[in-house]
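Hi team,

Below is the intake form for Type II secretion system F family protein from Corallincola holothuriorum. Please confirm the fields before the structure is written into the shared record.

FORM ID: S-0412
PROTEIN: Type II secretion system F family protein
ORGANISM: Corallincola holothuriorum
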Amino acid sequence: MAVATANKTKKKKSSISDLYVWQGVNKKGDKVSGELRGASPTDVKVQLRSQGVTPSKVKKKQKSLFGASGGSVGAADIAIITRQIATMLSAGVPLVQSIEMIAKGHEKEAMQNLLNGILVELQAGRPFSECLKQHPKYFDDLYVDLVDAGEQSGALDTIYDRIATYKEKAEALKSKIKKAMFYPAAVLAVAFIVTSILLIFVVPQFQEIFEGFGAELPAFTMMVIHISDFMQSYWYVILAALILGGYAFKQAHAKYPSVRDKTDEIIVKLPIIGSILHKAAIARFARTLSTTFAAGVPLISALESAAGASGNAVYRRAIMSIQREVQTGMQMNVAMRMTGIFPDMVTQMVMIGEESGALDGMLAKIANIYEMEVDDAVDGLTALLEPLIMVVLGTLVGGLIIAMYLPIFNMGKIIN
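The structure came back. Fields below:
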């Protein structure tokens, strides 16, 4: 009996997490739509009626077979609507009206549904931070905490402007990091593809010619021919191994924190790329801490948010170590210096900020400096890799051509 009751409870808890898409009419007679969690369609209809919405259609949201569709809501979309909300609040437009206007004018149906769902909850009298908390996929704890701080202080417009700036800077930094990671990957991919094509299709043509020579081939040429034979015989095995290996790594990276942490540790040690990632992590740390601290969030909580937003396991552990030391009464600049990963300039600027009582402003300056350094480093990497691609491809293609023409050169010497 007890087992049956436990099973019922378990089923009930899992069903509550179901997400339903709804359409209806609000008190003003306007058509509205959105998403809402509930135990059943009936439960969702009851919730909507209690919020002043007459539902016309409620159905369970289906998950796409191939993941998110092109109309899904991304981090860049959240950054854009955050700036729109901040602008409207600064202009004196009420929050409910701001969200309603943005929802009606947005081109993505998924975003319209998201905003309409938040709008219905707002109209029912729930705090804005609580409404956002119902959508953790789009609004993380840091976002919600900052909105809550703005509501508590009565300065939501000011706080929202800071959130918008933070999101814009974060997305710009993310874009730069992706750009920095893309170029080395592109060089390797192009080099692999070109080399594979030459080994599988071009080298065999020369091999047929060499078989008629009846002479011993140079060691370099024989090595290339053996590699070509292997590629011709097992190209599908190599391709399958690369695909399966990539898929396995992606799954392990998503599932196991230890894999993510080890990957972060390896990446930050790479030449050039590692330096860019170090600067990006410092920029994220400083930007997050500046935004949260300026919004009135206590330093201990702000450090926890900064650790989560650092984007790298090495810096996340270091920031959590700083948090523990600060809790014991140690100055933050001293705790930062003890980690051994923050540059002296950063710790000195933090020390000045602590002594002058303007830590948030000093952290914002640090973030600006390192965001500019990341930008310059990525531009420099782009300029460096353009000739590097030519050198790598030239070396590979040139090496294969030399290997194929060596027997011909040797034959010419014998004839002479």
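SUMMARY LINE: The beta strands are 19-25, 31-37, 54-60.

Thanks, M.
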